[in-house]
Design a protein that fits this description.
Layout: H1 7-12, H2 14-17, H3 20-35, E1 38-39, H4 47-50, E2 59-63, H5 88-101, H6 112-115, E3 119-123, E4 128-129, H7 141-155, E5 160-164, H8 165-169, E6 181-185, H9 190-193, H10 203-213
Parallel strand pairs: 2-3, 2-5, 5-6
Antiparallel strand pairs: 1-4
GO molecular function: uracil DNA N-glycosylase activity
Organism: Euzebyella marina
Protein name: Uracil-DNA glycosylase
Amino acid sequence: MPITIEETWKFHLKKEFEKPYFKSLSQFVKTEYALYTCYPKGKDVFAAFDHCPFDETKVVIIGQDPYHGPGQANGLCFSVKDGIAHPPSLINIFKEIETDTGKPYPRSGNLERWAEQGVLLLNATLTVRSHEAGSHQNRGWETFTDAVIQKLSLEKKGLVFLLWGGYAKKKAALIDKAKHHILTSGHPSPLSANRGYWFGNRHFSRANEILTKEGKNPINW
């Protein structure tokens, strides 16, 4: 798998790409894409980084796996391509934005518009086999994306991390809480949201309040 990734990320992650685990991971992914239908498309595997350079990152949202249905995954967590029906978690994200900020429910579920404002939409695992959720877990992606979180924590300050659900909350251990801001809540999936763990978290307005205090431009959610 050729490493084509945005230049500032290439600089900061250069040592990671040279490690034995990443070389094994690259070979695994290359083989999977040759033998099976996998998502996202190869050119979109590092899309989260390509749309949100290291130097411009202000907010980090952590997902787990790419969508594994046809035409859904575009390399950004929770995001789908233009014209694709919004998955349940994304619907609940947009509903919370609507009540939190007053912004109308959007037609497009493509979150590139967030990424280009400095929101890193990072899945812990960056690839998946079609219709097989979790099929590329524990192959090295988590080691890589943990290193990304640690690099951001170490090299930057005043970031806002939005950790939704038990899996994402565990990533708080990688973040320097003295330098950064962490907001946690339940996951936006229907199972969690319908139990009252998602709606009303006001993460979008709260993130913007923090960014403003940090002297950064708020996100147009």
